[in-house]
Amino acid sequence: MHRSLLICFPLLLGWLLPALDSSAQDLPTVDTGEESDFLPAIQMAPFVVEGDNSAIFVHARSRGDRRYAEKFAEDVITVTYDALGKSTGRGLVIVGRKGEPHPLVIFQKFIAMGEAGQLDPSVMPYIDEAKAKLAEWEAEVEIDENDAGITFEMVTELIPLPLKGPGSKLYQWAWLDGFDLDQVETRFAALRPEDFASDQLDEYNWVFYLPPKSAVHRVIKRVLPAVMKAENMGFFARAAARGAIVAFRPVITKAMEGMRKGMLFYTVTDARTDFSTEDIKALTGAYVEVLMPDFKFAGTSAERRQAVEAIQDQLAENIEYAKDPFIAPERLDEFDAADYAGFVGDYYDKGQSEVTHRFRIEDDAFTWTYRDQDPMMFHAATDHKLVREDNEMTIEFLVNEDGEVTGVEERWPRRRKTVPAQAAPMVAEK
């Protein structure tokens, strides 16, 4: 069932105030004396879902930021609603501002103070929760700190994230202190569990921090020198690299925007559905793949349609996986490695004439190797199935009625694949 988003321009603060220079004029933020200054500056975005309780609100301090956030959120919420057919709820998008610390910096400050014994012991559960969430975010970004010297801190500025749990309160307190880290430290040192008991933003089903759009360009400028230094580029190579960045900046920006939109989609889907984490990640991946630059630039409406179709295709695939979910089997306590000797050999990806997989037994240890990668250790689970050491993959040897091995079924939580035992026939060149 499709319900379009209605444009409700009278709800925009911009229609209630005289026209001003959007690049310089701030929107007013009223100091209410309450524990948060957020609420007075929050305005409903110019769209709601007809016949549904969905509505998006934006917190921004300049007209340019507000317009950016409204367009950003509308793109994602339209796709999310049309693809899943579920209410996206009441959501709040908070746009960061250049010069203000990213929420992750505030969370890191809270964690560091806790580890240094500068916080009251009674707030330790909130420290542990913030620490676990920070580790989760760092893992999602997947920055290899040994690659070209790029660190998580170098890209933090452009990372969007949901604000929930203690993170929401920590960011509001930093806001209240004007992001003055000395004042923030003083406030954090005085915190007690009861301070986390209520949150003015609880009226929203989800809250999303969106870095300012300009963060992408600042991160590019920060990362490029590190890459060039790691590659030991000479003067002309550095000049060429800078030229390439300038030429492809719109492509890089589009890719970064795709990542940020994927994060909002993940946030809304996580808050408004009962899908598993793995299902949501798969849906998000399908959405982001459509948003990645392909140099075709089909246009917003075509891109939205493609995104909806990709998400719905993945949703159908998720349902199929749910019928036969991946469950790591128990390892056998006792087994005879000789019983698996008949499986030792070479295997071939479909259509390949050269070996792609190898199963070996050495000193009663089983290994499964893909191409030139390191061998993976497996353990016996049944007479035909083995489970990888981390329990995140299985291989099952397929046998026909004559007892001949025909192939191997590889399975992961989100993927299945059959590797034949025979090579593809060679095709003679004409």
Question: How is this fold's topology laid out?
Answer:
Elements: E1 5-7, E2 42-49, E3 55-59, H1 63-84, E4 90-95, H2 103-115, H3 124-141, H4 152-155, E5 161-162, H5 166-176, H6 181-189, E6 206-210, H7 215-230, H8 235-247, H9 249-272, H10 277-291, H11 300-323, E7 345-347, E8 357-362, E9 365-370, E10 376-380, E11 385-388, E12 394-399, E13 405-412, E14 415-420
Parallel strand pairs: 3-4, 4-6
Antiparallel strand pairs: 1-2, 2-3, 5-6, 7-8, 8-9, 9-10, 10-11, 11-12, 12-13, 13-14
Describe the protein's architecture and organization.
- It is a single chain.
- The protein contains 11 helices and 14 strands.
- By secondary structure, it is of the alpha+beta class.
- Mean pLDDT is 80; it is low at 1-36.
- The relative contact order is 0.08.
- The chain is 39% helix and 17% strand.
- It has 2 domains: 5-213 and 249-323, no CATH class; 337-420, Lipocalin (Beta Barrel).
- Helix 1 (63-84) crosses helix 11, helix 2 crosses helix 6 (181-189) and helix 9 (249-272) runs antiparallel to helix 10.
- An 8-stranded antiparallel beta sheet has the order 7-8-9-10-11-12-13-14, with no helix packed on it.
N-to-C order of helices and strands: EEEHEHHHEHHEHHHHHEEEEEEEE
Largest sheet: 8 strands, antiparallel
- Give the tally of structural domains: 2
Principal-axis shape equals: globular
Cα separation of the termini: 53 Å
Beta-strand portion reads 15-25%
